[in-house]
Specification:
The chain is α/β, with parallel strands linked by helices. It contains 9 helices and 6 strands, in the order βααααααβαβαβαββ. InterPro entries: 2-HAD, HAD-like_sf, HAD-SF_hydro_IA, HAD_sf, PGP-like_dom2, S-2-haloacid_dehalogenase. GO terms for molecular function: (S)-2-haloacid dehalogenase activity.
């Protein structure tokens, strides 16, 4: 079954959030993987805490703050790498299957969109760098509602803009917590379990689990 719109999370789903650290792996040293994982974990934690407090700041500010925290936790990493790492975040690599999958879905007549915590500027840069701007129809940023996922108002950006019922939207994310929020909202959800992680939030489970986006291009 095909859907009227296929909507994708950006970070971790289309774009590799660990690509920035990998580009500077030699300079960071042996703690690079742990450094990158902590940077990402704190980035998300800050978004959830600020949503609960009602104290929104955009995702770029959280990205910088969480990087500062990672440097404090890993004193072996040279703080002079802060600017190169942040610069790299504006041009993260997309996963190799992404262009073909998005193109295939678009050829089926579906709308292709991103729904992300990222700021508009961050997302525009990532999309252009990956040459996805000629495929993607719309980019929805949480900045429009000043709240982060999994606030229902975030997912409603898609249905309101497209004038669709939630059931007409297929939402893809590598983040299980994001899938839980989108499932609760009413989207058909596909968990892209790239890390082969255990399931959670089982009362709001995905419609489908895939190891990558590759199979999706056939409109499943």
């Amino acid at each position: 079954m095909s859907y009227a719109a296929y909507v994708f999370d950006a970070y971790g789903t289309l774009f590799d959030v660990h690509a920035a650290v990998r580009r500077h792996a030699e300079a960071i040293g042996p703690d690079g993987q742990a450094f990158s994982e902590l940077w990402r974990a704190k980035q998300l934690e800050y978004s959830w805490v600020r949503s609960l407090m009602g104290a929104y700041v955009d995702f770029w500010e959280l990205t910088e703050q969480s990087l500062d925290y990672a440097f404090q936790r890993f004193p072996s990493a040279d703080p002079k790498l802060k600017k190169p790492l942040l610069d790299a975040y504006w041009a993260l690599d997309c996963y190799p299957e992404v262009p073909a999958v998005l193109k295939g879905l678009k050829e089926l007549g579906a709308r292709i969109a991103i729904l992300s915590n990222g700021s508009p500027a961050m997302l525009a840069s990532a999309v252009k760098n990956a040459a996805l701007d000629i495929i993607i129809d719309d980019v929805f940023s949480v900045d429009a509602v000043k709240a982060f996922k999994t606030a229902p108002a975030v997912y409603d950006l898609v249905t309101t803009s497209y004038r669709l019922y939630p059931q007409a939207v297929s939402f893809q994310s590598s983040n299980r917590w994001d899938i839980a929020g989108a499932t609760k909202f009413g989207f058909r959800t596909v968990w892209i379990n790239r890390a082969d992680g255990p399931d959670e939030y089982k009362d709001h489970g995905p419609s489908l689990i895939l190891p990558s986006l590759e199979s999706l291009q056939f409109g499943i």
